[in-house]
Design goal:
This protein has 363 residues and is α/β, with parallel strands linked by helices. Helices cover 39% and strands 17% of the residues. It has a seven-stranded parallel beta sheet, with helices on both faces. Strands 10-9-8-11-12-13 form a six-stranded parallel beta sheet, sandwiched between helices.
Amino acid sequence: MPRKILLFITDLEIGGTPTVVREVATRLNDPANGVEVEVACLARWGPVADELRAAGVAVTAFGARGVTDVFSATRQLIRLCRARQVDTVFSFLIHANAVAAAASLALRDVRFIQSVQTTQPNPRWHWWLQSVIANRAEQVVVPSPSAAAAARDWSGVAAEKLRVIPNAVDVERFQDLNPPVDRNPLPVGFIGRLDPIKCLPDLVRAVGFLRGRVRLHVFGEGAERADLERLVRHLQLTEIVTLHGAVPRPQDALRHIGLLVLPSKAEGFGLVLIEAMAAGVPVLATNVAGIRDVVRNGRTGLLVPPEPRALAAALERLVESPALRRRLAAAGHEDVRRRFTWSAVLPQYRGLLRLGGRGAGTP
């Protein structure tokens, strides 16, 4: 009997979780072999929806704009599942999890799986809501042991219900980028949302301490852009800090930087870290939940406390030692090949979704 699986996410804007959903959907969708995977999002159509459609995956955008649209979105999800004869709904992120949980009350024959992708402590009501809706899911998937601990400690999700499946990367897509690891001054980069949890002001200040020895390239968009632009002007760093805006693919940014820095307060995983490692770019990040599950300090990257002076000291160390940058880049690349490729991770999704045997798609 054909399988009908729906991956349901809050939005399909450029970001880590939408990237994971895109990869899982395109790799498992295989109608010729009886596995049909579709994607739906709560919000309006986004760039990742275009990528999914181009890959032959059906996409539905509900167009929800806020809490007032929750009931409408729930009805749309129920209708979609019935029309497509969906047997499994796999939701990602708290808003999609909540709508899926509500829809599950009307879809008794559908299997529901939820995913928690963060270790961010706030807003606390997210964790309270997750505690309320977790009982509507057969399993709760997380990308790291840190995310599992957060879901267990802050939402009371039972340990036996949690399933750790790490993020993954197609290493071959990141080959031959020739990142400028040995350029002087060193081009340092950040790739991601301009969000308070990412602590971009700390990185800007750290770069200021090394005035002239590095150039900072920020790739991404978000609510903090205006504040960052003001900070750069205030610190008189306009000559060495450039905000490029969002890029369609991480490769478009990684080919221009010799060191990736992720200064976050918390991460569920940090997909950009393994993307940089796959490209041969060394990484510097904060020693916080999620990140420490990915980066092995002193071996595959450097981890420091989340504050500007510690970031600056590590930046200076890396600037002064091209050999250290090359060693970390080589070890990071090898670690990604060993732990975070789709050939290692996709079978875990197949098992979760009960596809059996080889399943559909290809690593």
